[in-house]
Amino acid sequence: MLAILSGSRAFKSLERAINILCVDLGRKLKPKEVIYLAMAAQKFWGNLEGFYEMMIMRTPKWKVEKVLKRARLYEKMEELF
Predict the structure, then answer these.
(1) Cα–Cα distance between 63 and 20 in angstroms, integer?
(2) How far apart (Å, rounded) are the C-alpha atoms in residues 40 and 75?
(3) What is the pTM of this model?
(4) Is the separation of the CB atoms in 18 and 37 below 8 Å?
(5) CB–CB of 37/31 below 8 Å?
(6) 35 near 46, Cβ under 8 Å?
(7) Exposure letters 10-40 (e unless 16+ CB within 10 A, then b)
(8) Residue 20 and which of 13, 37, 38, 50 are 20 to 30 A apart at CA?
(9) CA dist., res. 41 & res. 37, Å (int)
(10) How far apart are the C-alpha atoms of 41 and 64, rounded to whole Å?
């Protein structure tokens, strides 16, 4: 999910805020915290599951495949079919 989010414009605008929060907290943000920030940036106030669905459905198929191939999951998924 973070790999798909990292390519979006909303996430790029959040990078500065994420860095500032890391410095203030004195630790790296958890992936879930970053996703909540992305939800707020896109003005999505539903649940986390709905946000996942929205992001995957709005992302072009080739971008999802690229992320899956980079993680070496695409080939394993092809074996299931």
Answers:
(1) 29
(2) 34
(3) 0.61
(4) yes
(5) no
(6) no
(7) ebeebeeebeebeeeeeeeeeeeebbebbbe
(8) 50
(9) 6
(10) 21
The answer to whether 37 touches 2, Cβ cutoff 8 Å, is: no
- Report the Cα 72 to chain-centroid distance in Å: 18
> Rounded distance, CA 32 to CA 36, Å?
6
Encode pLDDT of 24-79 as tens digits: 889 988 888 888 888 888 788 888 888 888 777 878 888 888 888 887 777 777 76
According to DSSP, residue 29 is labeled P
Instruction: Name the CA radius of gyration of the chain, rounded.
Output: 14
